[in-house]
């Protein structure tokens, strides 16, 4: 109920990147499933710890019997007379309390506790990995939304300019300074700008829908995204070196920590496997008694008379176990080698990912600088073309080419700007900082 109320309140306003991430961290089904997996690992660890202590159980068995050919019975003496009766049915009861305790099994039980603790820590890191993955996906969609929002603005301005050109062209046709064929080209350009605007709005709506689905907001619940203004200075901010980000990520990223735990777990599993060669020492003990209807003594007397107690120590020495211990040891060694390779692979993947972010950030930052200069030049060129076109000094083809060049430069500037900002944010995230636009 509290979650739905929070969602209802938040949906009335536009969501920031931070709000999207916070909501996902509380409501993601993937994260909830990871938490349940961790809880299962916790229960397994607790059970292995409890297995270090003795076990205690109580038992009782009550049974009825029937002997159809019973010929002798139970004799009783009453008033000096011996009476004998044959009872073909009888009733037995047994009662006992038993305990057992594994004193030593090559430290297999203690090492199993260590292994389960490591599994629990790995499950916790899996939660962090899932959370990081969701945050990265949210950031990518959020930046795409910001980019498409500005792209719509550019397309809208371009459409307004095309409409003005079409109106001016109509005026020139009316006074005989332009042919209808040239006017048709201006109308076609205006129609194309309208199409581009509709397509950009459709793309924006699609990215918003993807973000809503990622946040697992269903139904008719209203959802919209805040559109903070990303300044050019953000795109021009300094980019940290690859090695600086990588060195920090090695100490922070859960996938790297997970490989370290997997390596430790493989060492513990090897110790558990080697315990299969060693003897097992255990202690047992118990108390018990029994009663039967075939005995003339009272129930309480039988319970007392038949009471016994026992205690013992047992040892089990493996002699030939059909190669089970050796196979377990060899598999544990293979798992250790696999854990080493997995660790190296994860480290390489991490470096490759960071290097890719860094290269994209650098490349797009350079593109942004170049595109910014190109936009200024193309804008000045188009403004001049438009003035000359209005005076009849430039033809329709030159005007349209200038318009296309300006629009392409503006779109390139926007794309490189937001790609740079996204990769910068991801590099910050891998350094342990919070993503915020």
Report on the structure:
It is a single chain. The protein is α+β, with helices and mostly antiparallel strands and 437 residues long. It contains 11 helices and 6 strands. The chain has helices spanning 2-11, 17-27, 29-50, 108-174, 180-214, 232-235, 242-252, 254-274, 299-305, 324-390, 396-430, and strands at 55-66, 74-78, 81-85, 89-104, 280-292, 308-316. Residues 4-12 have low confidence and may be disordered.
Q: What's the end-to-end separation, in Å?
A: 30 Å
Helix-strand string: HHHEEEEHHHHHEHEHH
Instruction: State the assembly state of the protein chains.
Output: single chain
What structural category characterises the helix and strand content?
A: alpha+beta
Poorly predicted spans: 4-12
Radius of gyration: 40 Å
What is the share of helical residues? 55-70%
Helices, by number, come to 11
Q: How would you state the average pLDDT, rounded?
A: 90
Beta-strand fraction estimate: 5-15%
- In total, the number of strands is 6
């Amino acid at each position: 109920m509290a979650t739905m109320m929070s969602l209802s309140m938040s949906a009335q306003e536009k969501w920031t990147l931070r709000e999207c991430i916070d909501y996902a961290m509380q409501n993601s089904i993937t994260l909830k499933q990871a938490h349940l997996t961790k809880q299962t690992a916790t229960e397994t660890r607790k059970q292995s710890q409890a297995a270090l202590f003795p076990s205690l159980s109580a038992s009782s068995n009550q049974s009825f019997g029937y002997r159809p050919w019973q010929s002798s019975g139970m004799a009783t003496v009453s008033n000096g007379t011996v009476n004998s009766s044959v009872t073909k049915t009888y009733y037995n009861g047994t009662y006992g309390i038993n305990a057992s305790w594994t004193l030593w099994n090559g430290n297999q039980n203690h090492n199993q506790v260590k292994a389960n603790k490591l599994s629990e820590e790995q499950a916790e890191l899996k939660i962090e990995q899932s959370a990081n993955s969701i945050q990265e996906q949210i950031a990518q969609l959020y930046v795409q939304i910001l980019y498409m929002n500005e792209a719509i603005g550019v397309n809208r301005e371009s459409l307004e300019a095309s409409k003005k050109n079409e109106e001016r062209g109509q005026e020139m046709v009316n006074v005989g300074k332009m042919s209808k064929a040239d006017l048709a080209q201006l109308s076609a350009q205006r129609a194309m700008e309208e199409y581009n605007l509709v397509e950009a709005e459709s793309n924006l709506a699609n990215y918003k829908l993807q973000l809503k689905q990622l946040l697992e907001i269903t139904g008719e619940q209203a959802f919209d995204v805040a559109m903070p203004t990303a300044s050019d200075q953000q795109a021009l901010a300094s980019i940290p070196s690859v090695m600086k980000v990588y060195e920090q990520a090695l100490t922070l990223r859960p996938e790297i920590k997970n490989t370290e735990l997997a390596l430790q777990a493989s060492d513990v599993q090897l110790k558990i496997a080697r315990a299969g060669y060693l003897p097992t020492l255990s202690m047992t003990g118990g108390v018990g008694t029994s009663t039967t209807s075939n005995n003339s003594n009272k129930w309480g007397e039988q319970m007392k008379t038949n009471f016994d107690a026992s205690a013992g120590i047992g040892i089990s020495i493996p002699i030939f176990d059909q190669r089970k211990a050796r196979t377990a040891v060899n598999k544990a060694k293979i798992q250790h080698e696999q854990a080493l390779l997995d660790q190296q692979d994860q480290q390489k993947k991490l470096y490759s990912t960071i290097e890719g972010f860094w290269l994209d950030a650098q490349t797009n930052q350079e593109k942004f600088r170049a595109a910014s200069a190109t936009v200024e030049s193309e804008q000045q060129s188009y403004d001049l073309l438009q003035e000359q076109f209005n005076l009849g000094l430039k033809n329709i083809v030159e005007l349209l080419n200038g318009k296309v060049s300006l629009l392409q430069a503006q779109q390139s500037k926007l794309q490189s700007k937001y790609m740079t900002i996204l990769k910068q944010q991801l590099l910050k995230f891998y350094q342990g900082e919070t993503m915020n636009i």
